Amino acid sequence: MRIIILLAKVGKKMEEKKTFHINGYIALVVLIILIVIGGYCFYFGVTDESIAMITVSIVLWVISGLFLSSLTIVSPNQAKAILFFGQYLGTIKENGLFVTTPLTQKINVSLKVRNFNSSLLKVNDSDGNPVEISAVIVFKVVDTAKALFDVDRYQDFVEIQSETAIRHIATQYPYDTFNDDDLTLRGNTNEVSEELAKELQERLAVAGVEIIETRLNHLAYATEIASAMLQRQQAKAILSARQIIVEGAVSMTQMALEQIEDGQEINFTDDRKVQLINNLLVSIITDKGTQPVINTGDVTER
Question: Three-state DSSP class for 73?
Fold first, then answer.
């Protein structure tokens, strides 16, 4: 990004501005009247053999022809950048028929909202795991001068910088974790997309482009580690679930002992308390049904 900023500072920055243009319908009527006047002047000049009248008619025809050649049509969501022998005069963004400076080059620029799907990229996340990622970028041109003259082929510039930003963002976050406080590519797609849009806007400001929206549309582990990472995710999920179960079992056991001792005024010996804790923990933690064992006391034979 620093390289882009430095390059922008080295070259002359272009800024969009308005240029001379008038309503084409009114101008067309005026030009037709000038052509007719020029015809009358030429007729009377030839009849009266007046060089001055002939000269006036020729001048009127030349002026009318020059301005007729400058007629331009601007369609909705289109703009025309006007160049006079290589010099940028300005841009016409209004829709309709206009007459502008004669002998100028008119470059059409689309102001429509565009989107493209980035290619599937393989990058390493913050944990070093290879992931496949791609995104949809929605943008539009807001400064025609920068889009045409500050970068070479702004469409290609947008695509290349978008892929660079996607790679950079993907390396800042892990693909997934089991900590709810961590930002991840899979669990926080909205936050990641907003961060991507912010970085893209900084990169593409030099091209006169506004980022409207970015959205991750593909995210997965690379095929070579997909099965291994699936097993790892399953193991982490089991470990996380067991941890919650153990914490709950300890809390329930402690609460049960306190209620038994306080409510029944029973004082357990250390051995009996250890045995009771062991039984409660086993019955709560086990994932299989438990069968109670009733102690009937000692039996003596006669």
Answer: strand
Torsion of CA 248, 254, 257, 261, to 10 degrees: -140
Do the Cβ atoms of 149 and 210 come closer than 8 Å?
no
At 302, list the tokens. 């006669």
pLDDT at 80: 94
Triad 8, 9, 15: Cα angle to 5°: 65
Can you give the pLDDT at residue 178? 62
Ranges under pLDDT 50 in the chain: 1-10, 299-302
Tell me the pLDDT tens digit for each residue of 189-215.
888 899 999 999 999 999 999 999 999
- Number of other residues whose CB lies within 10 A of the CB of residue 31: 20
The residue among 114, 97, 79, 117 whose CA lies nearest residue 24 is 97
The pTM (predicted TM-score) of the whole model is 0.66
Residues in Cβ contact with 136 at an 8 Å cutoff, skipping those fewer than 6 apart? 115, 116, 117, 118, 213, 214, 215, 217
Burial class (CB in 10 A: 0-12, 13-18, 19+), 85: exposed
